[in-house]
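2024-03-11 09:14:02 INFO queue: dequeued item Ferredoxin reductase, len=242
2024-03-11 09:14:02 INFO validating residues
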Amino acid sequence: MRRRLIWRPAELVAATAETPSARTLRLRVPDWPGHLAGQHVDVRLTAEDGYTAQRSYSLAAPADGDMIELTVESVPDGEVSPYLTEVMEVGDQVEIRGPVGGWFVWRTESKPPVLLVGGGSGIVPLMAMIRARRQAGSRVPFRLVYSLRAPDRRYYADELRSPDPGLDVSYLYTRSAPGGASRPARRIMLDDLAEGGWPATFEPDCYVCGPTGFVEAAADLLLALGHAPERIRTERFGPTGG
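2024-03-11 09:14:37 INFO prediction written
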């Protein structure tokens, strides 16, 4: 039977700035049922007059008792993200419903090598997979290809810079590349995935997350490189009003 999802109160216990416009929120959710890396939740805000607004956000870290983490990018003129990134303070509460999703997940007992391809804030559920691998002590090799506009838009910069045996990270910049970069700023291309990813003969599990256009382009490139369609899992997002 499918488990019925209910709204639960969630209290902010800590917040960390990731970029000038993105923030990671650590929330305590009593009786949280746990979740898998790659799942997401719905967040609901209720105004004093009873008006409600809700949006979906990926979980940024593996299950940790009653604690969950979300990384939220502020959307200009949005209804939910500006509050979460600019207004919400420790001790404030929102409502959480979830976890949601069962296809775009990585399980710690999985054995094939993993290729993660993230565009912008699409890194969030992929980071949950990286952290779940580390937490479980898994020896499954991971490769992350992370596409973003400019160096100052990196999420989890310090963590991804730290040595993590079995994890290789490649950065692709689309608007402004750092000084000395060998790759010019441009959209993701076939060579980027051929060099930063796994050969199709290794039969890796591929996870692609980001804006719709990015996900479609990356998935097409993986197919062109010979990756089996059933091994390519995608999660996309588009304009939602924030």
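2024-03-11 09:14:37 INFO annotate: The mean pLDDT is 95.
2024-03-11 09:14:38 INFO item closed
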